[in-house]
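Researcher: Re-running this chain for the archive, since the previous output was lost when a drive failed. Same request as before.
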Amino acid sequence: MSIQTFRNIDTTSFILTTLLLFTSFAGFSQDYKTAKAQNGDGIYSLLKRHGVPASEFKNFIEINQEKLGKNNQLIVGRSYKLPGTGSQPEAVSQETSNTGNGNKVEIHKIFGPKYERVNIADNQLKGAVYYLKSGHGGPDPGAIGKYGSHTLCEDEYAYDVTLRLARKLIEHGATVYMIVRDPNDGIRDESFLKPDKDEVCYPNQKIPLKQLSRLHQRKDAVNNLYAKHKGSFQRFVVIHVDSRSKGENIDVFFYYDERSKTGKKLAENLVQTFDSKYRQHQPGRGYHGSVSARNLYVIKNSFPPAVFIELGNINHTRDQQRFIIEDNRKAVANWLYEGLVKDFGNNK
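Model: Regenerated structure tokens:
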């Protein structure tokens, strides 16, 4: 079955006025409050005294590694950074301006020079907060496939689709947090995405090598932000690429935490959207994506309703077309956006 491409993103020329209204554009540096260790202090007691939750224990060690003694002991009189107290990047840092016809434009550097100017089409998703996390990153490329002489790394393709989804959500008024962030890889149009290892976890945490540490880190990032937006409509979207045998052709499919009825509805809204889109654009092809419960650490232990998405099999030739053809990555992101709009409308 052939993979059809879709070219359905509007192109808009932007005429910027000379006046730019700057909001805080946070880079990847961060200033923390500090505290001096006292006699008898351990990390937990220092955090408690300064109102920092115990869940920041591992972050404390990471940002103070060079100042800690043997077995992570505190040195009396030495100043330590307090995690969670520094200036953090906004959901997606931005500048704003107006086009000649009065429409709002936001500048989001994370999308790269070609795509950083985002025309705000409407406020359809105003009040919605989305945490988007692409799989793996940093020292872990995730699943690895081969296409001829080219190496395909899961983290790069999942990140590109996630960025495209983020941009589409912002166009319609949503607040979006990229949990895995790359300082220099914006949206890329080439088929073969060069791998790197410089991704960080929101707001600017080095991604650890150990898998469980990575999962804890990402879960904590989402849960801390969830508390900040308490009372808002919130969703957590996790995007991966699967790795199976070369002969196994699969469609996009969705997992949810079995305890979450809202997470299940979210996944069902997405799979229904994909089914409808395939019927529209590739009649007769059939769509065999599925929704099922699965015991996955990040969605099980995160506060907002969550969905875990597998985009396809990185080892199957037909599935690879879904990733390496730029128009297909764009279409997948657009369909995910439409499914999220449906979920928002059904749950307001």
